Each structure stands twice: as C-alpha cells, then as structure tokens.
Amino acid sequence: MPRKKTSKKDNLELEFDQPSEELEAVPVSDEDIFSIKTDAGHVDDMFSDWFLDYASYVILERAVPHANDGLKPVQRRILHSMRELEDGRYNKVANVIGNTMKYHPHGDASIGDAMVQLGQKELLIDMQGNWGNTLTGDSAAAPRYIEARLSKFALDVVFNPKTTQWLSSYDGRNKEPDTLPVKFPLLLAQGAEGIAVGLSCKILPHNFNELLDGCIALLRKEKPELVPDFPTGGIADVSEYNNGKRGGRVKVRARIETRSKLLLAITELPFGKTTTSLIDSILAANEKGKIKIARVEDNTADVVEILVYLPSGSDPETVEQALYAFTDCELSVSTNICVIENEKPHFFSAQDLLYLATEKTRNLLQLELEIQLGELEEKWHFSSLEKIFIEKRIYRRIEEEETWEAVIATVDEGLKPYKKLFKREVTQDDILRLLEIKIKRISKFDSLKADEQIKALEDDIETTKKNLKYLTKYAIKWFTELKKKYGEGRERKTVLASFERVVAQDVVIANETLYVDKKEGFAGIGMKKDEAVCKCSNLDDVIAINQEGKLIVSKVSDKAFFGKNILHIDIFNRADPNALTYCLVYRDGKTGPTLAKHFTTGGVTRDKEYDLTKGKPGSRVFYISCYPTEGGEPDAVKINLKPAPRLRKTEEEVLFKDLAVRGRSSGGNIVTKNAVRNVVRMTKAAREEAEG
Per the confidence metrics, is the pTM higher than 0.85? Predict the structure, then answer.
C-alpha cells in the first residue's frame, strides 16, 4: 500500500499519495470515471473558496487602510516595532525592518519600501540620511545606511498601551496591536492609495491645520469644509471634488512662472508627478510637434525649478497653455475613499472620515480620562491608607503576633474605625501592600508632605472628573493644543483656483502644411509635391467639399481621400463648427433646377459623408465659397445660362445676403430651371449696382 503524506498550508490539510513500486495497473470502470468527474466539481469549489480567501486577505490585510487608525497592516507593524525600539535615539532602518518581520512575514523589501513611503510624508517618522527625494523621484539609500526614530507628534498621538487592543502575532510568540489608538485624522492627513482584488482605494492628502479645524468644527456641531492639500504644492481646482466620494476628481496644475519672453520656470509640481516624469512628458510633446521649446533644464534640489527655454518668436502665454494641454503640467486626479471598518470595506466621503476620526479621538480621550481617574483614585486610596497606618501607629500592633494570619487580622482590626473615610472597601491586597512598607520609610514619614500629596491627588481627581463631565470641551482643547504645538510650518501649500480645461486645438502649434490634389481627391501633410493649402497641426480636422456636393470632415493625416474634384478644402473648427457660413449653387440631378443655398455646417462626425445637395445622382456644384459668420459679408454671384430657343434672359443674379441662413441639410432656393453654363462671382461694383 502507498504511504500517506500530510501537508498543512493555510489551515488546509492535503494528502499526497507517495509512489510505490508495488502498485499495479488497475482498469478504470464507469463508476470510477463518474467519481473523478464528481471530484472535479469539488476541486472547482475549493478553488472558488481559495480565491475568496485570497481576495479577503488582500483587502483586509494589505491594500486598504483601517478607519480606526488610518494605517495599513504593514504601516501599523512598522510603527509598533519602532515603538518597541524607541529610546530617544535613531535606529538603523535595517534594524527596524528586522524587528518588524516578527509581525509582518512578507520579506524585508516590502517593509523597507513601506517605511520609506511613510517617512517621506514627514509626519510620523523623524528621518536621518538619504531618504530619497519626492520632488525628483530619486530613491532612498539602502536600509543599512539610513536611520529613523518616531517623531514627537507620533509619540503624542499614536501610542497608548493602556487603550490598545492586542492580538497574537502570526506565530503566536508576540503581541501586536489590532489597531493603534490614533487621536488624529491620520488617513486624511497622509492620504492613501492601494489596489486590492475587485476594488481600489485612493484618498488625497489634506492640510494638517485644516483637519484640526475641521475636528473642532464637528465637535461644535458645525459643518467643516474639506479640500485636498498636496505636499508638492501646485494649483488645484476642487469644484468637482464631491467631498472625496467615488467619482469625485480634482484638477491639478504645476505652477508656471514667466521669467522672460523666452523663459518659463516650473516651480511647483502637480500631485503625483516628479520632475523627471514631468520633463519626460514635455520632451515627448515637443517631439510630437505639439509644443515648441528650445531646451529644458532641471535645477531642482530642495525646491522645484524646471527651466523651459523657448525658441525666438514664441509667445510665453501660448506655450504655457500648451504645457497644460499636452503635458503632465495639468492632470485630473480621481478620488475613492475606501476603508476597512467592522472587518468590511466601506466607501465614505472625506467629511464622514473626519467625523469617524473625531469621534474615535473623543472616545479615546474619554477612555484615557477614565483610566487616569481610576489610577488617581487608587493612589489617593493607598496614600490615605498609608497615612493612617503610620500616623495611628497601627504597625506597632503586629509586634506581638506570631502568625501571618494574625498580623493581617490585627492590621485589619486597627483600620476598622477609619474604613468609612475611604471611597472603596479596604481589601487584603491593600493590607499586604501596607505590610511591605519598609521601616526606613516609616521612620522618615512626613505628615505635612503626605497631606500635600493627598490634596494634590484630590485636585487632580476633581479636574479629571470635570474633564469627563465636559468631554466635548476637553476634546476641543486637545485639538487646539495639538494645532498650537505641531501646526507651525504646516500651512497650506496648494493654491485653490478655478480654471477651465485648455482646448488643445487652441494652443497647438501649426507646424505642418496641408497639401491637396483636387482632381484626384487626395489631401494630407505628406503630399509635398502637390498644391499647398494652409498651415495646420496634427490635431486639426480637414473639411472638404467636392463637385458632387459631398462634405467630409476627417483628421489630418499624411494622405486621405475626400472624393474626386475637390472644390473647397480648409481646416475645420470643431470647437465652433458654425464659425463659417457657406454660399453654394448646385444643380439638382442631371436635368433638375439650379438652386442657391446659404448654410452653416453644424456638428459633424469624422469620416462621415454628408450631402449638401438633395442627393440625386448627377447633382453638380457650380459654385462654393465661405465667409466668417461674425462680421463677414456674403457673396453675390451671376449665373450664366446656356442659350436656348425662346430664352430671352441669359443670366440670373443671386445675392446670398437675401437668402436666410439654414442648416446643411436644407435644399436651398430654386434660381432657374434652365441649363446653366457657369457661375461667376460678381465684382464689388456689379454687386453694388445689383443691390441699388
């Protein structure tokens, strides 16, 4: 028989058959095949369970922060480990990583990366050495070269063993916090980002002082105003922030200064970008011809300074707008506040998250006051007990007793007349503590000093009870003192402004030439041997109208077909399609009447063919022109007719100003039913004579 081998992994026992030379081939019956298929169903169920377990683990234990303290598990374990090592001096980051692996068994690299990211937020960790540069994107030095310790702020607001719930570590050898008792909206201050299985989290950072003001406002039953504040500064439009809810977004811009006619300087970055990535986007836009620059210099050290030199003849304002349109100088940052609460992921707004943090802080302060009150009352109880024990010389009564039980009974009997003075019952443990007092302390006992100590304890007890009674007022004072102590130098860095999205077509540089072969119907920027039409850019659209009355709008390309016998071709203004008004004379079909049409194009779809005639086969355009809708003057044309018997009038005049402007699908007005020889534009003098 084969031996069985059992393996345990993730609390799941699997059995593997070990091969044996004595095994013989056994024929497989239909029942065996049915059994195998049934087992396959069980395997599917097992994989489904495993996937759900894995997804839950990633969501709860890796990617999403907890609502209670605003930390992911690895961050919480790093801070707990640093608190264990805390002695006021710096510790090598490598030592902290090693100590953290007692709680986080996922490799030193992941812990080191998380610690660097936590330190670069400059709130909880006091750093020493090269921790990288968030402005340039430079990475930190190796963990063995850099040092860290907890900041004073972290020591004040993050830790309190008396109010912490403890769990066993993964191997059961140590205790780690379930969540840390953070008395501050840490998650909104630092921000967070994570991708789990099936959901993601992105919380934008907010200003330290504004968060404390918001906590105070909530405690005063007021509604706080919360908007992001980015460590890289820049300019932000928060009109669509939507209080941080899913679907909200913030438009962020770099701060660009005009140093001279040919020099721009970028002094602050948009959130999430470094000088390296920003310069790469500028160079890429320059290579594609979307912007025109001479060169870029990066002088960033402690502050950002990217110098953008412009070629002669450039307009700095236009180039600045082009940087916003075509590079990462302007970005849209989405937000999705997802946190763990009650062992499940929840989606909140920024105000909801601030409210949770404020209430959590208030509850922690209450718990700390209750613990403090209990400790003070215990001190008062024993100090009063000690004073009576020594002053009333109760200790002298035990000299004649021979047994320990008799000693305890004698002390208890001596304290009986005074028990009514105490706030709680005198226990045997109290008596044992009294009996542990050394004779040296008894001989040096100072009654006046003891009275002063008891009075101070009574004052502290009264103050603590008052704080508990007026807990909200105490919490407001706590936040106010916190702001006073740590708020200096944490003023808002990001300037709030409202700005419209830059239209790319308005600022792109027209550095290409559009060419056309009208007879064959081709047009593009790569047909350099053909007729030049106008300057254009890669983002422009081309409008073409051919002799059959077909209108086509297509994006600029090297070469594209617009229909043979092109009569009109130009750049199409998609932002304002009615900026031009068209004058058209055409024949309806092969033998139909000739019509005059005064129209605007309206919105169009790229590469879709539109009929400007009625669409009959054989229709032909005799004349097409256009003029600016605002301030332009419509044409006047003379239609020369072909000679015919009994035809007395050989020409017709059309003044387009007398025709109403309609849409492109309108048929137009009939001018003549006779055959047309040609249509010519009237001279200014002829038009004035016709109008007169």
Answer: no
Quick one: pLDDT band at residue 7, thresholds 50, 70, 90?
Answer: very low
Q: What percent of the chain has pLDDT over 90?
A: 65
CA distances to 114, 129, 183, 188 from 154, in Å: 17, 20, 10, 16
3-state helix, strand, coil in the chain (%, to 5): 35, 25, 40
Q: Positive or negative, the Cα torsion across 124, 130, 131, 132?
A: positive
Cβ atoms of 319 and 291 closer than 8 Å: yes
Residue 44 pLDDT class (50, 70, 90 cuts): low
Q: What is the mean pLDDT of residues 448-460?
A: 93
Q: What are phi and psi of 654, to 5 degrees?
A: -125, 120
CA atoms within a 13 Å half-sphere pointing along the CA-CB vector of 141: 13
pLDDT at 17 (0 to 100): 40
Q: 302: exposed, middle or buried (C-beta count within 10 Å: 0-12, 13-18, 19+)?
A: exposed
SS3 266: strand
Residue 230, pLDDT > 80, answer yes
Q: What length is written for the chain?
A: 692
- Burial (CB count <10 Å: 0-12, 13-18, 19+), residue 292: middle
Residues 6+ apart with CB under 8 A from 439: none
Q: Cα(245)–Cα(184) distance, rounded to whole angstroms?
A: 21
Interatomic CA distance for residues 211 and 351, integer angstroms: 10
d(CA 685, CA 692): 10
As separate numbers, helices (DSSP H) first and strands (DSSP E) second, the chain gives 17, 35
Q: What is the pLDDT of residues 630-654, one digit of tens each?
A: 989 999 999 999 988 888 888 899 9
Instruction: Write the pLDDT tens digit of every residue in 180-229.
Output: 999 999 999 999 888 766 678 899 999 999 999 999 999 999 999 899 99
Task: Tell whether the model's pLDDT for residue 36 goes beyond 60.
Answer: no
SS (HEC) of 571-593? EECCCCCCCEEEEEEEECCCCCC
Residue 522 corresponds to which tokens in the numbers above? 């081709």
- Which amino acid is it at 414? G
Give how far the C-alpha of residue 5 lies from the chain's centroid of Cα atoms, to the nearest Å.
Answer: 50
- Name the residue among 163, 197, 194, 195 with its Cα closest to residue 178: 163
The amino acid present at 30, given as its one-letter code, is: D
Enzyme catalytic residues: 145
Of residues 685 and 590, the one with the higher pLDDT is 590
Q: Helix, strand or coil for residue 556?
A: coil
State yes or no: pLDDT of 47 exceeds 60.
no
Nearest-angstrom CA–CA distance, 546 and 402: 126
CA neighbor of 427 nearest in space, from 381, 393, 377, 371:
381
Range scoring the smallest mean pLDDT among 18-27, 246-255, 257-266: 18-27
Residue 313: exposure state from Cβ atoms within 10 A (0-12, 13-18, ≥19): exposed
Question: Could you give the 3-state DSSP secondary structure of residue 478?
Answer: helix
d(Cα 277, Cα 293) in Å, to the nearest integer? 17
Dist CA 543 CA 577 (whole Å): 11
Per-residue pLDDT band at 28 (split at 50, 70, 90): very low
- Residue 493 burial by Cβ neighbours in a 10 Å radius (0-12, 13-18, 19+): middle
Strand locations in 547-650, DSSP E? 550-555, 560-561, 566-572, 580-587, 594-600, 609-611, 620-628, 636-641
Neighbours of 618 (CB within 10 A): 12
Of the two residues 30 and 513, the one the predictor is more confident about is: 513
Strand-pairing partners, residue 583, are: 598, 625
pLDDT at 2 over 50: no
- SS in 3 state form for 269-320? CCCCCCHHHHHHHHHHHHHCCCCCCCEEEECCCCCCCEEEECCCCCCHHHHH
Return the closest-CA partner of residue 12 out of 59, 53, 40: 53
